[in-house]
Amino acid sequence: MTTFPIVSPANMARITRAAPFWCSVGLVPIAWIEAIYGGWTLFLMPVMTWYLFTAIDAIAGTYDANADLETSEGELFWYRLVTIIWAPLQFVTLFGIIWYVTAAGHLNVWELIGLAFGLGVMSGTIGIVYAHELAHQKPKFERWLADILLSMSLYSHFRSEHLLVHHRYVGTPRDPVTARYNEGFHKFFFRVLHQQPVSAFKAEAAMLARKNQPWHHRSNPFWRYAALQLAMICLAIWIGGWVGLGLFVYQAFISMWQLEIVNYVEHYGLTRKHLGAGKYEHVLPRHSWNASQLASNWLLINLQRHSDHHYKPDRRFPLLQTYDENDAPQLPYGYPIMTMAAMVPPVWIRIMNPRVRAWRKKYYPEIEDWTPYKDATNPMPR
């Protein structure tokens, strides 16, 4: 196992070390520039999130230092703060822009569609990523912020599915968002759009059943999810009419797409070994694709250190560790360029299938028939 440089708690606590992770805040003025000026400025959001950070990654390369795991919560204040303030920032930005453009009426139909696309890129690339971080935390306040962020994407069920299903069953047939070998993104996307809510609801109902409570018990978070999403829809209509609703729903759809294309990249073709009788090996770093690109990890608050996130889900993002190729499979590039590749299945397959086959040969040379893994026909986990 490779030993990476360790960053001391004192260094981790410095605001200058946390500052790069605040780059997401720069997207707020970009969104307003698009709303005010329209035209060519509508390309700014995707250019900033996809291409700029890809270019910086190409220049800066990877960052392999790991935080000292003894770093305390207090020493992570500046990292936590950006995830906490994002929910009100996104709320004011999203609904403020919907109110402004519907009242001003200065953008044509195509400009409104482009604007909503950019807002969806923001709420998907940043909002849902931050919601993911917050949903994993113990304080109820942070979990509430996660629910508020997810409701702005009309994807509230993600919290239940992610915590109760994905982390427990990743790499098995029971996990809807483990992308299968040779499964193109577009097929994956429409599959998980309907499988994920059902999976999440069943998981919550099963948890209530273990407490001898019916599925419709008031503690079922799906009631909260529905109330929050309905509130967001009503607010969009109230401040922007039917045009405001259209803008809101379209940006929500784009944010869903942003989330699921990342889900697709994170686990494509990686499966846990079936040990027999519905029992699977424990989750290890090898069951998620790892990427250590510097700039895209700033933007995505270390989400690309996904191998460690699944190995130790309760770690806050500054403490996530990176791994080398001996312990975890490596993506050739950061998420921005890999998600663009995923949109073109022949390109994606050409890049990733040889890597999946190499991963199989390296970790599971004893498995001769991969058909049940590719088709997700192995027994459901117990």
TrEMBL record:
<dbReference type="InterPro" id="IPR005804">
    <property type="entry name" value="FA_desaturase_dom"/>
</dbReference>
<keyword id="KW-0479">Metal-binding</keyword>
<keyword id="KW-0812">Transmembrane</keyword>
<keyword id="KW-0408">Iron</keyword>
<feature type="transmembrane region" description="Helical">
    <location>
        <begin position="112"/>
        <end position="131"/>
    </location>
</feature>
<comment type="similarity">
    <text>Belongs to the fatty acid desaturase type 1 family. AlkB subfamily.</text>
</comment>
<feature type="transmembrane region" description="Helical">
    <location>
        <begin position="225"/>
        <end position="250"/>
    </location>
</feature>
<dbReference type="GO" id="GO:0006629">
    <property type="term" value="P:lipid metabolic process"/>
</dbReference>
<feature type="transmembrane region" description="Helical">
    <location>
        <begin position="77"/>
        <end position="100"/>
    </location>
</feature>
<dbReference type="GO" id="GO:0046872">
    <property type="term" value="F:metal ion binding"/>
</dbReference>
<dbReference type="GO" id="GO:0005886">
    <property type="term" value="C:plasma membrane"/>
</dbReference>
<dbReference type="InterPro" id="IPR033885">
    <property type="entry name" value="AlkB/XylM"/>
</dbReference>
<keyword id="KW-0472">Membrane</keyword>
<keyword id="KW-1133">Transmembrane helix</keyword>
<dbReference type="GO" id="GO:0004497">
    <property type="term" value="F:monooxygenase activity"/>
</dbReference>
<keyword id="KW-0503">Monooxygenase</keyword>
<feature type="domain" description="Fatty acid desaturase">
    <location>
        <begin position="110"/>
        <end position="339"/>
    </location>
</feature>
<keyword id="KW-0997">Cell inner membrane</keyword>
<feature type="transmembrane region" description="Helical">
    <location>
        <begin position="21"/>
        <end position="42"/>
    </location>
</feature>
<dbReference type="Pfam" id="PF00487">
    <property type="entry name" value="FA_desaturase"/>
</dbReference>
<keyword id="KW-0560">Oxidoreductase</keyword>
<keyword id="KW-1003">Cell membrane</keyword>
<protein>
    <submittedName>
        <fullName>Alkane 1-monooxygenase 2</fullName>
        <ecNumber>1.14.15.3</ecNumber>
    </submittedName>
</protein>
